[in-house]
């Protein structure tokens, strides 16, 4: 297992970092106002294949607003969004923005207080800037490469969870339900006296590690916009980010473990041991 430091990524011009943080923070505050004003109050989702994969008017409104502001403030930097897809040239661009206007839409529709607005600036080394709005807790979480992570302006730095006993491990379901091996993973965690929680927002699950509330988060099914901002936060707070083979990656594409350094190896062992044989070591 190789630990990953945000300082190994290529440097970014300081003015770009500062401006990206300022604009992303402004957008996160806008999203907080919209989400808290509308959650659970007559939202009308479009039901697709899964009733937990809803798109609401709020998703569309926030993404359109985000695109409008980013296009004005950062001309030429493409935006990739959950609802509207990718701007032309996003795959080849030096930088790209990725946005999930409401991560945890099923919770939002139901009025459950657990969803987030997620916005990140990426380059070929991974997250450059990540900002999450946690509307129900009135928190804005922000991170920039090499500048650390903050919650409402207060610095975040991991210090605890030296042993699994008493720790919380967050995970999320895949679209069809539990991920392969999830039952065995929960049993392994319980045997070590750790608790597994499924809370309904990939971004906030990862953020709990950065905040020191959880020892680890394990995800098998996600998109870049779901997790990029939260991974930025976790990296800058001192967390370990690994793929399911145990290789360090700034933004794993196929299986993601975010953990405190003291918990990472143990949780990785539970995960790898309980994955079906055919899925171990896949890329």
Automatic annotation (TrEMBL):
InterPro entries: Inositol_monophosphatase-like, Inositol_monophosphatase_CS. Its EC number is 3.1.3.25. It is an enzyme of class 3 (hydrolase). Keywords: Magnesium, Metal-binding. One of its GO terms (molecular function) is inositol monophosphate 1-phosphatase activity. It holds the Pfam family Inositol_P. Its cofactor is Mg(2+). Mg(2+) binds at residues 82, 100, 103, 226. One of its GO terms (biological process) is phosphatidylinositol phosphate biosynthetic process. It catalyses: a myo-inositol phosphate + H2O = myo-inositol + phosphate. Gene3D superfamilies: 3.40.190.80, Fructose-1,6-Bisphosphatase, subunit A, domain 1 (3.30.540.10). This is inositol-phosphate phosphatase. It comes from Amycolatopsis antarctica. The lineage of its organism: Bacteria, Bacillati, Actinomycetota, Actinomycetes, Pseudonocardiales.
